[in-house]
Design brief:
single chain, about 450 residues, mainly alpha, about 80% helix, disordered C terminus
């Protein structure tokens, strides 16, 4: 058994996952260590305001590049991937500028429409955060393509330590919602700067053969936009719907019940997303190019998805199960007595987050299996069900807890259905995308059976 575990640990896929996971573990350990201090300094209402602001940006950031950044891993040639990087940055800059104009000329109307008076004075920061966060996700995809997992992990740890220590120090002097929002903006600036510095060398490593320059031509960028047009036409709408449905509870809880319940939800969601950020993100970052290469080389894609999903289920069962059983007590003990209500929210969120945790192999497989049309339809169904659950809980019971419980139950059912459908389709479909060749050693490995390194 020890020899088998040792052999397994030396496989490139496992090493890459462990590298990303280690960085994420350290980053989230920093968050956990600072959370009891920060929650006691700022309180539920301040976190509610931050949650509203974060929800506004989170609904736009995933689609600020029209999801072209997700395709950066796919091209066989680095030149094409660089074209996608340039295209994604240009679109993100354009959408952020458009948001800035909307905020400048229609701020009052937007605040009134969304009932977000609690962040009215801070809404001008939304376009700034959208652009900075978009740059981060674009450059991060490039670094994933280049398999720079160690540098990505180092950036995560450095950024998290800097941001949380600053929050704690600032909370001693001025524990206000404004400080939390300003520091969130600073955190995005720090992330984007570090990713830009880390990726600059590989982006400028070789000039384009056609022009001899390091910057792609307009024609090349246009060709990439056309080749991967299914991302803005099929993936982006679905991503927007998903992001909107995730951010919707905070906005509705704020407008219907005030910032305190929104703060309970925001803290619960942030804490319970930790396993997904630690393990799920690591699996997704490494699994994405792995499953794409497997499909093109004729491997059993369905088996890879099933085994990865079952492995994540085994990992997530205990932490999420503990929260379901002891949520209120845990939140009260760790964050203070005023956060016990967040533990009640957390019980329901844990059920939903568990299925969000185990669906990572299925969600990253969707663009590789070329079934993004299905993904769009499914996301439409998802957001309709979630919105209906939230409004149903409010209209029939007038309770924030009931509304969130129904919202989470809808998430559990729909994510389970998504996993089953993708697994079935992976056994029938043919991968038609050509992707970048990843490390030959990693590509020769399988997720299930340990093999000797090449």
């Amino acid at each position: 058994m020890i020899r088998r575990l040792w052999t397994l640990s030396r496989r490139p896929f496992i090493r890459n996952v462990a590298t990303v996971a280690t960085g994420t573990v350290l980053a989230q350990a920093i968050v956990v260590a600072f959370s009891p201090i920060i929650t006691r300094l700022y309180g539920p209402e301040a976190f509610g305001v931050l949650g509203v602001f974060a929800s506004l940006t989170a609904m736009v950031v995933p689609v600020a590049s029209l999801t072209y950044h997700v395709a950066i891993v796919l091209p066989a040639e680095d030149e094409d991937a660089k074209g996608l990087v340039a295209l994604s940055l240009m679109i993100a800059a354009g959408i952020s500028s458009l948001l800035a104009l909307v905020v400048l000329f229609f701020r009052s109307a937007v605040v009134e429409l969304l009932q977000i008076q609690v962040v009215a004075s801070l809404i001008f920061l939304v376009p700034v955060v959208v652009f900075l966060a978009s740059c981060t996700q674009i450059l991060r995809q490039w670094m994933i393509r280049k398999q720079q997992y160690k540098r990505t992990a180092a950036i995560m740890v450095t950024s998290t330590l800097s941001l949380n220590s600053t929050k704690a120090c600032a909370g001693l002097l001025w524990p206000s919602p404004v400080i939390l929002v300003l520091l969130a903006t600073f955190g995005n600036l720090l992330d984007s700067t570090m990713f830009a510095i880390a990726s600059l060398r590989t982006l400028l490593a070789a000039p384009f053969k056609e022009t001899g320059r390091h910057i792609p031509s307009r024609g090349h960028i246009a060709a990439m936009a056309k080749r991967y047009r299914d991302f803005p036409t099929l993936r982006a709408p679905g991503t927007l719907l998903t992001a909107g449905s995730v951010g919707l509870p905070v906005l509705l809880l704020t407008s219907l019940f005030g910032p305190a319940p929104a703060g309970f939800y925001a803290l619960g969601a942030r804490v319970l997303a930790l396993p997904a950020q630690i393990i799920g993100t690591a699996i997704g970052d490494v699994f994405y190019p792995r499953i794409a290469q497997a499909g093109n080389s004729g491997e059993n894609v369905q088996r890879l998805i099933v085994r990865a999903t079952l492995g994540l289920a085994a990992l997530g069962l205990v932490p999420y199960g503990v929260v379901v059983a002891f949520g209120p007590w845990l939140f009260g003990f760790v964050f203070g007595s005023e956060w016990v209500a967040a533990g009640e929210f957390g019980r329901w969120l844990a059920m939903w987050m568990f299925f969000m945790f185990i669906n990572k192999p299925s969600t990253v497989a969707i663009p590789v299996l070329d079934i993004q049309g299905f993904g769009l339809v499914f996301n439409i169904v998802m957001i309709v069900a979630r919105v209906a659950a939230l409004f149903g809980g409010y209209a029939m019971w007038g309770s924030a807890l009931v509304a969130i419980s129904l919202y989470c139950i809808a998430g559990v059912v729909l994510n389970a259905v998504l996993i089953l459908i993708v697994i079935v389709k992976s056994g029938k479909g043919v991968v038609r995308r050509q992707v970048a060749p990843v490390d030959a050693e990693a590509c020769s490995q399988d997720l299930s059976e340990p093999k000797v390194d090449s």
